[in-house]
Amino acid sequence: MDKIDNLDKKILSILSQNARIPFKDVAAECGVSRAAIHQRVQHLMENGIITGSGFDVNPKSLGYSTCTYVGLNLERGSMYKNVVSRLINIPEIVECHFTTGPYTMLLKLYARDNEQLMDLLNNKLQSIPGVVSTETLISLEQSIKREIPVKTEDADKQS
Asked: Which tens digits make up the pLDDT trace of 35-87?
């Protein structure tokens, strides 16, 4: 991955606060041309620094009222890839992490209600070969959701 300079960091900071901001406004804030911003953003995307741009859909608007984190314990950690290949087919799972600590894997999923959650746990997750146990944590409220802050050298000097 190429190094990113202060201008790249400033662009990332602006875009992480509002991904829909027009490039002309980013250019004005950075003091460079719109073409320079376009070129920089393209470069950041090609190098995997910017990994996506899209819209976040509120799961509740689609009828998914229960956000749940599920810790999975596997028979052996080496079964991880086989288990992931099964989890990929469960659309309610929105994140999957291979972790250290009390769980082999940590999942984030959405269910329409407790009945669907129970079905997902009992009939989908716990039936996957290699899964020995699950622990379920229901999120009552998401209090913070944000991108990692991007600090420029100028901002570091001001702090």
From this structure: 999 999 999 999 999 998 878 889 999 999 999 999 999 999 999 999 999 99
Q: What is the 3-state secondary structure (H, E, C) of the chain?
A: CCCCCHHHHHHHHHHHHCCCCCHHHHHHHHCCCHHHHHHHHHHHHHCCCCCCCCCCCCHHHHCCCEEEEEEEEECCHHHHHHHHHHHCCCCCEEEEEECCCCCCEEEEEEECCHHHHHHHHHHHHCCCCCEEEEEEEEECCCCCCCCCCCCCHHHHHHC
Kindly list the domain boundaries of the chain, sorted by start residue.
6-54, 59-139
Architecture of domain 6-54 in CATH?
Answer: Orthogonal Bundle (1.10)
Q: Which CATH architecture has domain 59-139?
A: 2-Layer Sandwich (3.30)
- Give the pLDDT of residue 56: 84
